[in-house]
Amino acid sequence: GTASGTGTFILNSPITLDLTGANTTDCNMWTLVDATDLASVTYSNNFGVTSTSGAFTETAGGSGLWRLDDGTNIWTFTQSTGTLEVQSALYTNWATSYGLAGADADQTADIEGGGTGDGLNNLLEFAHGTNPNVSDNAVLSVVDGSSFTPGTPAVALNFSPLAVTFRYVRRKNHVAAGLTYTPRFIDSTGSYVVDASAPAPTVVSTQDGGYEVVEVPFPLFETTGKKAKAMLAIVDVTLAP
After folding, report:
1. Fewer CB within 10 Å, N side or C side of the chain?
2. In 3D, which of 107, 110, 119 has the Cα closest to residue 237?
3. Residues 113-157 pLDDT 10s
4. What are phi and psi of 236, to 5 degrees?
5. DSSP state, 134?
6. Nearest residue to 139 (alpha-carbon basis) of 52, 176, 128
7. Which residues contact 130 (CB under 8 A, 6 or more apart)?
8. Rounded CA gap, 94 and 73, in Å?
């Protein structure tokens, strides 16, 4: 038989999306939940979005905006429209996927806490994999070679062999995204120390999504030629126009 009229639709568990072979043309969109003939659509607290490319994360509690950065594209599912959209993983689209617009989408904006910020502007959030809507200015935490929690750069002590390294989160597609990461070391004289060997960053942890953790060794000597006892480490991040 057939049924007619209107009804309600309740999503009470996570949905799983097969993104294999999906047409990833920039801004392509699919309607997954069509409420045209429904009286209402309700998403319960058990709702979530997973996929063949990884799990989606809600941008803020109750926002209804779910996103996944797979390193090549940003996927966004919007509960209010029931649509899934794919965008190139560039800064502007990253900001849009987090609901940022106008001045809030500027690279220098820091909007958490009603505008007080968390000390990380949008460019640093984009570069290091943190959330521009959440106060998450904490040091990155590496669990193992395939799991980490994004955050600000960290110092690591390795025992085999003995070495002190500087770690930071980097986008896997940083070249395509126009991002440049430049680690810098400042010695006790306030001078920048240049490592003549210019070691390339080594990947120490990678996981599903668009980010990885890399590290570089601390220089052994200050600009004076003395053995370094203490040194400040920072990473400069720039985005090509």
Report:
1. N
2. 107
3. 777 788 999 999 999 999 999 888 899 999 999 999 999 999 998
4. -85, 135
5. S
6. 128
7. 120, 124, 136, 137, 150, 151
8. 10
**Vertex 54, ends 236 and 79: CA angle to 5°?**
100
Whole-angstrom distance, CA of residue 45 vs CA of residue 232: 44
Answer yes or no: are the C-beta atoms of 207 and 222 closer than 8 Å. no
Spatial distance between the Cα atoms of 8 and 107, rounded to a whole number of angstroms: 42
Tens-level pLDDT at each residue, the chain (241 residues): 555 666 788 899 999 999 999 998 877 899 999 877 777 889 999 999 999 999 999 987 888 989 898 877 889 899 988 999 998 768 888 898 899 999 999 999 998 877 778 899 999 999 999 999 988 889 999 999 999 999 999 999 888 778 899 999 999 888 777 889 999 999 999 999 877 667 889 999 998 788 999 999 998 889 998 988 888 999 999 987 6
Strands (E), 45-178: 49-51, 54-55, 57-58, 65-69, 73-78, 83-88, 141-144, 147-149, 154-159, 162-171
User: Could you tell me the strand order of the sheet in which 15-17 lies?
Assistant: 15-17, 49-51, 54-55
Phi, psi of 102 (to 5 degrees): 60, -140
Cβ neighbours, 10 Å, residue 69: 27
Calpha distance 65→99 (Å, rounded): 8
